Amino acid sequence: MKLFTPTELGRLELRNRVVMAPMTRSRADQASDVPTDMMREYYQQRASAGLIITEGTQPSAEGKGYCRTPGIYSSEQIAAWKTITAAVHAEGGQIVLQIMHCGRVASAANKAAGVRTVAPSAVAAKGEIFTEQGMLPFDEPEAMSEADILQTIDDYRRATENAFAAGFDGVELHCTSGYLPAQFLSTGSNRRQDEWGGSLEKRLCFVLEVIKAMTAVDGADRVGMRICPGNPFNDLHDDNHQETFSALLQKVDPMGLAYLHVIRMPQLGLDNIGLAKANYSGALIVNESFDRDEAETVLDEQIQAVSFGRPFIANPDLVRRYREALALSQINPKTLYTPGEAGYTDYSTFD
Ligand SMILES: Cc1cc2nc3c(=O)[nH]c(=O)nc-3n(C[C@H](O)[C@H](O)[C@H](O)COP(=O)(O)O)c2cc1C
């Protein structure tokens, strides 16, 4: 099957096209945002993937939204990530760091004391977020000043630099699911009337500047980007996501990224993969509810790989199980975000 053949995405060399999708699992140290030993074991167990994309990782203390998510902004965090990238490389795997700034999708209860929650505009997301103290409403965010925006763009640059210092093969910009980049792109959350909002062109600026900053570190061919046009997750609303993402992709296309990672969303009646193909000419990774056989049929000249999320949680040896058509284990949804090894590193291989 084509799924098990090698491919290249920019500078990344995948030994197969079964990619592990980014998944927040909340096993980092809550006080320091430092990755734990248990995370090293978890990623090493899954290193037979053609590529691992890590859980969303904050580029700064301000970028943290949830509890027990890792960071990539301190020397302790870089040192801990180094052990993880080394463990994956020892198994012959490749690993990309997903950089996630949550913006307004946050609670002060999940952050260090005094760390702000910021967003393009002072518009809170409706809904609640999990904290160690139970469910709490999303914070009322502070609207970012011009200086805040420039600082945050630089945080993404530094996070990229730190990721490479930690041995990652690449970095991925998380640009969906209602987090900061998506907040800038969308009319519901971006009410600014300056260089960073007010027109379609200006709503794109933040994401484009972040990509420029990330690609300036060591070239575009180690940088990917993840999108899901139309995704309403975390109270995200845009008047015309089709127009927004078409314009964005046309601008990103010539930048020569390693890949564009597209989540389909057929339940909303959208054709995100079609939208990506119409506006972007580079390599694609596609995602959401694929199984082995559908993944095999979707691969083509442009779609180079498929990412799998939930199947990788309960099946560390997913590539082997797909290759040999073995039965899959099912996830326990109760332990997705709980601290500790249960439901994390204790899923076994087939035999
Ligand atoms: C527990 C869990 C955590 C997730 N965390 C992230 C994340 O940090 N970043 C991200 O881009 N997507 C995240 N996702 C979405 C997955 O990457 C993926 O898009 C989703 O699970 C659908 O793919 P699947 O049908 O193969 O599971 C998460 C999904 C799950 C189940």
Describe the fold and architecture.
With 351 residues, the protein is of the alpha/beta class. The protein has a single domain, classed as TIM Barrel. The chain has helices at residues 37-45, 75-90, 146-165, 180-185, 200-218, 241-252, 272-279, 292-298, 310-314, 318-323; strands at residues 7-9, 12-14, 18-20, 51-57, 95-99, 118-119, 128-131, 134-137, 142-143, 170-174, 223-227, 259-263, 284-287, 303-308. An 8-stranded parallel beta barrel has the order 3-4-5-10-11-12-13-14, surrounded by 4 helices. Strand 11, helix 6 (241-252) and strand 12 (259-263) form a beta-alpha-beta unit. Helix 1 packs parallel to helix 2 and helix 6 (241-252) packs parallel to helix 7 (272-279). The longest helix is centred in the middle third of the chain and has 20 residues, at 146-165. It is globular. The relative contact order is 0.15. The model has no long low-confidence stretch (mean pLDDT 98). Bound molecules: flavin mononucleotide. Flavin mononucleotide binds at residues 21-24, 55-56, 98, 100, 174, 226, 263, 287-289, 308-311, 336. The site of flavin mononucleotide has 19 residues, from strand 4 and helix 9.
Evaluate the radius of gyration. Answer: 19 Å
Ligand species? flavin mononucleotide
The first-to-last residue Cα distance is 23 Å
CATH class category = Alpha Beta
Beta strands, count: 14
Order of helices and strands: EEEHEHEEEEEHEHHEHEHEHEHH
Q: What fold name stands as the CATH topology?
A: TIM Barrel
**What is the CATH architecture assignment?**
Alpha-Beta Barrel
